[in-house]
Design goal:
This is Alkaline shock response membrane anchor protein AmaP. With 180 residues, the chain is of the alpha+beta class. Helix content is 56%, strand content 24%. The mean pLDDT is 85.
């Protein structure tokens, strides 16, 4: 969601909350808003202004409704691999996650991998949350992991990979063995 959409949504929610508060006050017995509303309907200039405000509210509501439906239908993201004469060739983000996981498993010392991918105009940005074995040099392993994942995605999917971020979330520790 863009910054403009967030600002419009915040403004829409604020105005809706104010109108709901006024409506609750009218229900509680405050008659001033009803008198002002009736007065505005009698004057043509105010009626036009009320119509424009109602139209803006309607258009904002429809924009947010259609935007939410579009997000629900979009489902999984995809990355375009090749635009050919016969059509587009694309790969889904879950398929790319499998490729990234496969490449990361080739690095010695990596125990668990949880990739997060973001495909944008500059290419595929990869964030890896990993758990590692304690017996490896972590900076060297992270650098090796970044390079292997980047090379593997470029070689297999043909996508640009501007960044591979690695976050080590834990060090794997085997349970202590009991000697009986």
């Amino acid at each position: 969601m863009s910054v403009l959409d967030r600002a419009l949504l915040a403004l829409f929610a604020l105005i809706t909350a104010i109108l709901a508060g006024i409506f609750l006050a009218v229900i509680a017995g405050w008659s001033v808003p009803l008198d002002l509303f009736e007065l505005s309907l009698l004057n043509n200039d105010y009626r036009l202004l009320a119509g424009v405000v109602a139209l803006i509210f309607f258009l904002l509501a429809m924009r947010f409704l259609l935007g939410s439906l579009r997000l629900a239908q979009a489902g999984e993201g995809r990355a375009v691999i090749k635009a050919a004469d016969l059509g587009l060739v694309s790969i889904s983000l879950p398929a790319l996650e499998h490729l990234v996981t496969r490449a990361a498993r080739q690095v010695k010392g990596v125990r668990e991998i949880r990739p997060r991918l973001n495909y944008g105009p500059e290419g595929l940005a990869i964030r890896l949350n990993i758990t590692v074995n304690p017996d490896r040099n972590l900076p060297e392993m992270a650098a090796e992991l970044q390079e292997k994942v980047r090379e593997y995605v470029i070689a297999t999917a043909g996508l640009e990979v501007p960044e591979v971020q690695v976050r080590i979330n834990g060090i794997f520790q085997e349970g202590q063995r009991r000697v009986e």
